[in-house]
Automatic annotation (TrEMBL), chain A:
It comes from the Bacteria. The lineage of its organism: Bacteria, Bacillati, Actinomycetota, Actinomycetes, Propionibacteriales. This is DUF1990 family protein.
From TrEMBL, chain B:
One of its GO terms (molecular function) is anti-sigma factor antagonist activity. Residues 6-113 form the STAS domain. This is Anti-sigma factor antagonist. InterPro entries: STAS_dom, STAS_dom_sf. The chain crosses the membrane at residues 43-69.
Amino acid sequence: MSSNDEQPAAANRDAANWAKLVSRLKVAQVPDGAVNLNVDGRQLTSPIQGFGKMWQKTYVVRLPGERVTPTELIATWRRQFGEFWPKGNHFYAPLTGIEPGDVALLNLRMPGGTTLSTGVMVLYADEESFTLMTPQGHMFAGWITFSAARQDDETVVQSQVLMRASDPIFELALTMGGHRQEDLFWSQTLGNVAAHFGHPDAVVETKVVCVDKRRQWSRWRNVWHSSAIRSTIYMVEAPIRAITPHKRPAA
Amino acid sequence: MAEATATFDVRRQGTAGVLDIRGDVTAGSEDVLMKAYEGAGDVTAVILNFAGLSYMNSGGIGLLVTLLVRARRRSQRLLAYGLSEHYRQIFELTRLDEAIGIHDTEQDALAAAGAA
């Protein structure tokens, strides 16, 4: 079989696992409480398009293999994704759950009582993993892969983030405690997953690697799309919108 | 977490190193990919030949981003050829195509790298 003969088989094998090509995101529906302020019309951003240092953060928790298989765990995680998040944060899952190409809106609790409205697209999903990718304006450019695998007699559950802060403001915020907050967020999430499967005291291991210490200064203009700035303006304008309802954005 | 299921054979073509990829590229391919990259030695460009690729998941895409960082650190260009239409679209979707030059043939990639 020639190399060219092999390509259609490769495409067929995983085509359904990947999102279809899109140039800009489109939110199909906006659930009650969600704000579609920083997602519709945005492009996806990989770590290549980000500003800050590149980080790979890995969070791992181990469960007894007899308790749950990797496929069962991932099926549950995809179905109940937002329920495992720490309290105060909201993942507005599409009705279909987590399927390739789905776009979900997020409300994230930030220091000072503010809420950051942003979103993600499901880039990839199969029986043992799924990946969420961020749009322009998200706090980081990159993706998060959630996976489960059998190792010996354990089911090893992992979240792995590959990211750069999107812009200089988010880079500063991450440096000033944001990274710690994010580590805590995913640690708690994995802890909640473990608790769901009967192991509330499971220990979450965290490994953080700086993949690239350089900042991409040519990307400083990403700040134009900053979800932090736009979310803050949205909150400040709330009283005005209350008396002029025709100016409300899609929410 | 996953086991390596891909092979990366290294060839030298002019001033470029060509990595012939075969099999499934996943996060578990990291060690073999980075070993192959180091094996390419002191080259001006690294060209990834995807003609023998069977499958690549998002973990594999993440590996390519990491490889890109390493190549840039050494002022090396990273190029690719042999991608099926499906994986070309994945490169476009993930915007890797903005940093990794995609070409139809090895000759085109070598010419673009100035290594022919």
